[in-house]
Amino acid sequence: MQQFEDAVGRRTAIDQEQATLLVELNKMKGQIHNFEEARQGVQKKIEDAATSHLEPQSNKNHYTKKLEDETTKVEANEAITKQLQEFMNWTSSAEEYCERVEYPRKVDVVERTLESIQKVLKEREHRHGAMVDEMTIEVNNVKAVLDSVEKELRSLAE
Known about the structure:
Blueprint: H1 2-97, H2 107-128, H3 132-157
């Protein structure tokens, strides 16, 4: 019996010690749980802050790229508009010299004609040893000299 009482006494002491340890364990688990909740709250705030920081940056990059794309389109349209305006100016200047002749030729026909004319002009340059522009300038200079000599002759004849 003595043995039984000793065993019960030890068991009671162990149970009391275990009860205090269980209270401490539960207190620690509560602290760990509170810490985890606080950590998750802070982590959520950090993620939200990072997201709120990245979203405007992403929007800025998106709209910057969109602006560049639209600027490129505008520049292309302006170039087309400028070319069209030059064509209209050229057409109006050409119509001052003569009436417009509607002759719908295909592009390849016009290119072949242009190439053949350029070949003929180059052959003429080789034969005459001068370019057509140079010959035109020379003819204009000689004509100016001729006109001045004719004026002098008229003034001498009077």
